[in-house]
Amino acid sequence: MSSAMPPPLDPEQLVALDRAHVWHPYAPMPGRTDPVVVESASGVRLRLARPAEGADELIDGMSSWWAAVHGYGHPVLDEAVRDQLGRMSHVMFGGITHEPAVRLAAKLVEITPDPLRHVFLSDSGSVSVEVAVKMCLQYWRSLGRPAKRRLLTWRGGYHGDTFQTMAVCDPDGGMHSAWAGLLPDQVFADRPPAGFDAGVDQEYAAHLADLLERHAHELAAVIVEPVVQGTGGMRFHSPGYLRLLRELADAHDVLLIFDEVATGFGRTGALFAADHAGVTPDVMCLGKSLTGGYLSMAATLCTPRIADGISRGELPVLAHGPTFMGNPLAAAVANASIELLIRGDWRTQVKRIEAELRTNLEPARALPGVVDVRVLGAIGVVQLDHDVDVAAASRAAMRAGVWLRPYRDMVYSMPPFITGDEDLARIAGGVLAAVEAG
C-alpha cells in the first residue's frame, strides 16, 4: 500500500467540499456562505489560502474562541507536542496513568484556590460542566438526599451545548430555548447587575438570598460564570456577588460551581476569576486556554468534601469516563502552556492589553447605535442597540485586516496575550469598522 499523501486541494475545491459536507457551528447545512480558508497560522496571524476582502492574512482578535493565549506556532508548545508524540500520543486512562496527566493535575491543584485538590480530566468545556453537575448530584445521592437535584443559576449565562449544560444557560436568549420542555427544569435568578466595579446591589442580594432560602431543600448546587458572563452577553459583574453566593451556599447547605472555562488562565486580569473575590467554589471547571489552544482538553476540580461524599455512596465512583480522558499529548502541551504562562509576565501582558483596548475602543462611544463600551483584562466589548449584521460586520473587520466573530448585539475581541500594541490598535480598528458596518 502506498504511503504517499494525496495532493493538496486548491482553495476552490476546499470551499466546494466544505459547503457540501462540513457542518460548521451555529450554521445551516448545506452552508450558505463561503468560509474563510486558513492555510497556516503564526504568532497572532492567520494566513489565508485565498484573499478575503482583499486580505492575505488576518490578525486574530478572537484567540480561536479565547483559547490561543500564546498565539500560534509557539516554539515551546510545538516542542512539547513533538516530544510527547515521540513517546505516545494516547493511552486509555482507565487503570493506567502517565506523567503528563499526573503533572497536570498536580499543577492545577497548585495554582487554583485551596482546597480544590482533586482533578477529573475530560475533553471539552461542555463535558467539564457535565462532570461538575454530575459530581454534585451524585454527592447528594451518596449522602441519602436525592431530592437535592436542581441547579440555581442567573440569567444571561452560558455553560455549553450539551443537554445538562443547556439547562443552565439563559432560558430565553440564544438557541437553547428551542429545547424548552426537554431540558431539566432549573431555578433562575435575575441577571446580576452590570459593572465589575459597581459593588453589590442590596436589592439584588436579597433576591439571591430569597431564592436560595426557598429552594435550598431541592438545590444540589449553584453554578455561575464568575465575573464575566461570556457567550451569554459578555457582561461583567462585581466579584462581591461571588462572595455572597459562597456565603449563601454555605448557609443553606448547597454546593457552588464556578464555570471558568472562558475566564481561567488570566483572561480577566486575575489568574482565575475566583481570585478577584478571594473565594473557593466546591467545584471549578477549566478548559479553552488550558492547552494554549493546541488540543481539546478540560478539567473539573473539586474539594475533598465532594470526593469523600461520593466515595461513601452506594456507587462509590464518579460515573463518568471519557475515551480520551487524560490524553498524553493534550496533557503535555497543557503543562507547557501553564508553565509558559506562570513563568512569563502574563499580568503585565494582560494589563497592557486592557489599557490599549480601553484607549482604542473609546471612539466607539460616539458611533451610532452603540450603547456601551466595556473592557476587563484582555476582553474588549462594544455593545449595540440592535443585533449585528454578522456577515457585513465580519467583512468590514477583514477589510481592516482583522478576524472577529461578532454575535447577537456585540462586536468584541479577546486577543492572544502576545498581541503587540500596533496589532491591538489594528484589532480595535477592526472592531470600529465592524460596528459601523453592522
UniProtKB/TrEMBL annotation:
Enzyme class, UniProt record, top EC level: transferase
Pfam family, one: Aminotran_3
Residues binding substrate: 65, 158, 288, 321, 405
Major location category of this protein: cytoplasm
Residues of the site described as Participates in the substrate recognition with KAPA and in a stacking interaction with the adenine ring of SAM: 26
CDD domains named in the record: OAT_like
Residues recorded with modification N6-(pyridoxal phosphate)lysine: 288
Location of this chain's protein in the cell: Cytoplasm
Cofactor section: pyridoxal 5'-phosphate
One MF term in the entry's GO annotations: adenosylmethionine-8-amino-7-oxononanoate transaminase activity
Pathway listed: Cofactor biosynthesis; biotin biosynthesis; 7,8-diaminononanoate from 8-amino-7-oxononanoate (SAM route): step 1/1
Family the UniProt entry places it in: Belongs to the class-III pyridoxal-phosphate-dependent aminotransferase family. BioA subfamily.
Function: Catalyzes the transfer of the alpha-amino group from S-adenosyl-L-methionine (SAM) to 7-keto-8-aminopelargonic acid (KAPA) to form 7,8-diaminopelargonic acid (DAPA). It is the only aminotransferase known to utilize SAM as an amino donor.
Name by which UniProt lists this protein: Adenosylmethionine-8-amino-7-oxononanoate aminotransferase
Organism: Streptomyces avidinii
Lineage: Bacteria, Bacillati, Actinomycetota, Actinomycetes, Kitasatosporales
